[in-house]
Each structure stands twice: as C-alpha cells, then as structure tokens.
Specification:
Largest sheet: 2 strands, antiparallel
Helix content: 40-55%
Number of strands: 2
Oligomer: single chain
Order of helices and strands: HHHHHHHHEEHHH
Number of helices: 11
Structural class: mainly alpha
Length: 331
C-alpha cells in the first residue's frame, strides 16, 4: 500500500516510504532527551529487529554450535567447520525465509515495500543474469568465506591468550556494556570503510558489485566483491584490541552478516496475519542504494549529518544529493 504522503513529490518516486523525515539516534542530539534515547534503544533491543534477532542467534550459536574456546587453540578441521556452519546456516535460513515470504510467496503483497519494481531477472549486469542468484553467490561464496577466515584467526588468538579475554562471571558490567556498544562500533567502522569504497577507483572495480542492487532484496545484504568483504569484516579486529568474550565476537559476526539481510530486504516491516511482526528494511540505507552519494553510514551515528551527506527522505534532500553527486563526478 503506498505511503499516504502526497505533499512531498519524493513520495511519488516510491511505492512506500516512511511518513516522516528519517530520524537519527537521539543520543547525539542537543539538548539531550533521555526519554527519546530510551525509546530508541528500547525499540532496537526489545522488539523483533536486526539487533535483537542477531543477539538471539548469537546466544543459540554459542550455546549449541560452537565448541569451547579451549578447543580452538590449534587450527583443526573440526571446530573450524563448526564456525563456518555457524556463519552459513543462519544466513541461509534468514535470507531464504525473508525472500520466500516477501518475494516468492508475496505474503504481504506490496505493503511497506519501498521500490515499485520486483527483483531483476534476465539482466546481464548480474552474475548468472539473475539478481537473486548473483546475490547468493557473492554472499555465500565471498562474504561468508571471508568472515569465517577472520573469525578463525580471532578465536584462535583468544584461545591461545594472545589477546585479552573477559568472562561474564568476572566482568558482568563490562561484558554487557561492550555488547551494547558493538552495533555502534559497527556503524563507525562501516561509515569510513564505505566512504573509502565510494572513491572512484575502488567503486568501479569493487563496490559496484554491491551497487548492482539498486532495488535490494534479502540476499543483497552482504553481496559484495571479495576485496570489499576483506575491508568490511575487518570490523571484527576490534576484538584483538578490546577485551572481549567469545560471545561478543559471535554477536558481532551475526550483526555484520544478518542485520544487512534484514536492512536490505526492501520492505520496512514484515507483516504476518495483519500484524507487524518485525522491523526489517532500512529506508536510510535504501536511499543510499537509490541515490548512491548519500547516507554512507547508519542512523546509529550521524556521520552523514555531520559531513553534509544526510538524506532524510525528502525531495529537497534528493535535489541536494544530486547536486553533490554531479560535483563529485565533475571534479
């Protein structure tokens, strides 16, 4: 169902868009508003969202799949295969389930779908001439492989005492605080890596693989070139510096791999039996896929607002972004 916003011409460019300008994390607003901050984080952690889903998956993986850290002290096929499965299986389940409900079964029709178009088929820009198969290949073949290799190295370093680790029993406050800050660190890292990838040389040779997806779907989330994934997943290396529990790395892994599946789903919310079951797509990032040179980061940390590349979903912001893009490519 299209948005009911008719005054702003930007609404005509979408099948659906949020009724109000995009909000950014109120933690960085002045004067501070404790209630707004509380509502922001309560909405992220206490509803079915990318953050809460990734936390639930991390707990299940740590308790049911991953072997004890001591078993990771030497590189061995057994535990290494379990880490690979812990990355592969959740990605396949979440992306396939969302794709089936939203695009194959069309369980909610076009309700809360941003773009008017369906995913691309018979399009030579994509590997295998098909957007979904292209995205599956780059997600599972490239992204999951790079993410797994990095995790092998960090788990091995933790197991051998080469980096400081903590336990929830001995450091409960730090463990909870660091867990809460991981999405924020992810946003910091993503913004700067993403800006780097939009430099013309890297964009043309590397990041363009991801930006084939102007109209995104669940499998588009981490459908990236090998080199982009090598940069993107360096976010995990913070655990070589900051004292962490293996569960921190597991949550971080899920957040980097599964939250993009949800944020790229192309639908703002998942609706089941007329109930809004979960928050899914991220219009902030959808605008980036439509207009390219805006919203490089996330709404968690307002780098784009600070550096003048924030698109709030309005027609005025679209015109401003187009001018910026034209200046950028005519220098």
């Amino acid at each position: 169902m299209p948005s009911d916003v008719t005054i702003d011409p930007e609404s005509d460019r979408w099948n659906y868009r949020p009724a109000h300008p995009l909000a950014l994390n109120p933690l960085f607003s002045w004067p501070p508003s404790p209630m707004a901050i509380l509502n922001w984080y309560r909405g992220a952690w206490l509803q079915i969202t990318a953050v809460s889903t990734c936390m639930a998956l991390a707990l299940l993986i740590w308790w049911l799949i991953l072997p004890p850290l001591a078993a990771m002290a030497s590189f061995a096929p057994g535990w290494m295969a379990w880490v690979w499965l812990a990355n592969m299986v959740p990605h396949v389940i979440v992306a396939s389930t969302l794709h089936w409900w939203l695009y194959f079964h069309k369980g909610q029709g076009m309700r809360t779908k941003f773009e008017k178009r369906d995913l691309a088929r018979n399009n030579g820009i994509f590997t295998f001439n098909n957007q979904v198969w292209d995205n599956i290949w780059w997600s599972l073949g490239s992204a999951v492989t790079v993410a797994t290799v990095y995790q092998w190295l960090i788990f091995w370093a933790m197991a051998n005492g080469y980096v400081l680790t903590v336990t929830f029993a001995e450091n409960p406050v730090w463990c909870v605080v660091w867990m809460a800050f991981i999405p924020m660190w992810s946003g910091v890292h993503f913004y700067w890596v993403h800006r780097l990838e939009h430099q013309p040389a890297l964009y043309k040779r590397v990041h363009a693989v991801h930006h084939r997806n102007v109209n995104t779907g669940p499998w588009s989330g981490i459908s990236n070139h090998w080199f982009e994934n090598m940069l993107y997943f360096t976010t995990y290396f913070i655990h070589l510096i900051i004292p962490s529990h293996p569960l921190h790395l597991t949550f971080h892994a899920m957040f980097q791999q599964i939250s993009p599946v949800m944020s790229h789903s192309g639908f703002e919310r998942v609706i089941v039996n007329e109930t809004q079951a979960a928050r899914a797509g991220d219009f902030f990032h959808q605008l980036h896929h439509r207009y390219f040179e805006c919203n490089y980061g996330t709404s968690e940390i307002p780098f784009d607002k600070w550096f003048g590349t924030f698109h709030d979903g309005s027609a005025a912001a679209t015109e401003r972004t187009r001018k910026f893009k034209k200046q950028m490519y005519t220098r």
